[in-house]
Amino acid sequence: MSPSRYNLARLDFVSIQLAVGCARTGNLTAAARDCNLVLPAASRRLRDLERSLGVELFERHSRGLKPTACGQVFLKRGMSLLQELDRLAEELADAQLGVVRHVRLCASSAAITQFLSPLLAEHALSRPEVRVDLEEQVSEAVVTTLREGRADVAVFVEGPDVRDLDARDFRSDELVLVLPAGHRLAGVTPLPFVDTLDEPWISLNAGAALLQAQQRAALAAGRPFKLRMQVRSFDAVSHMVASGLGIAALPREAAQPMLQALHLVSRPLADAWAHRQLKIAVRTDADATAIQLRDDLLQPSRNAKAADATDK
Asked: How does pLDDT run across 215-249, given as a tens digit for each residue?
């Protein structure tokens, strides 16, 4: 490792936290208070930090502090350093309790809602020395998080490029229409997606496999997809539908409890893309603990209603 060009003795975590606080709030007084510093000491720390880095992090004016371009970079990287410090403290505390390894799992809403809960509970019982840290993202972001090394294992709906990853079939699910009771499209026979395109739709945020499939299907039909609202969760989608704001498509198993709670109805979709494959992936350089979690999750749960991974 090459020597640092900076005086590391001046890059203490208190100064980093102070600068991040200033960048987020634009207010030195508030940032100093959060760091338990008196204002003169905080001002001196900030100046010392800028001198040590050799750059100006802030433009100073009567209304407060505004991050420079360098300040924006420092905010992003400084927040990452502080988050890593928090994780270090958590892992050291866990190590005292016998937890010797953390594994970062990033998964899509479809995977978490339908499949992962019982599998993770069984993994925790069988491997108490391993702590699984779970993060929820849309499928596209899940794969990016794994590829960039911010996750060790990823579970997502098939679609994102996985050529540089070790990806395997995980589970499968089925999308169904979710409608208010009494809606004109309510029924029991499978309905082609193209027959729904006169309706306003509620869907998930950009990057979600569900939204991408809907947009591709509408484009193939040469019809506009009338996307009225985008939200982050299946629960929020269901509440929007229950309020009469539009219709939606959700995984059958994830939708079931919300159909009952919100007095909604479902109808099968006739399109082949409504039957989806979920994937589980690790990087090709994954360590043994990540591979063990991957293999454990591939096993059928004793408590889940989901089908075996090999039963497609």
From this structure: 999 999 999 999 999 999 999 999 999 999 999 99
Burial of residue 24 (CB within 10 Å: 0-12, 13-18, 19+) is middle
pLDDT of 29 reads 92
CATH of 8-95, one of 1.10.1660.10, 1.10.10.10, 3.40.50.1100, 2.60.40.420: 1.10.10.10
d(CA 27, CA 291): 46
Backbone dihedral angles phi then psi of residue 256, each to the nearest 5 degrees: -55, -50
* pLDDT under 50: residue ranges of the chain: 1-3, 305-312
> Which amino acid, one-letter code, is at 5?
R
Distances (CA, A) of 48 to 25, 43, 44, 81, 311: 20, 9, 6, 19, 62
The domains of the chain are located at: 8-95, 99-171+276-298, 173-273
Q: pLDDT at position 307, please?
A: 41
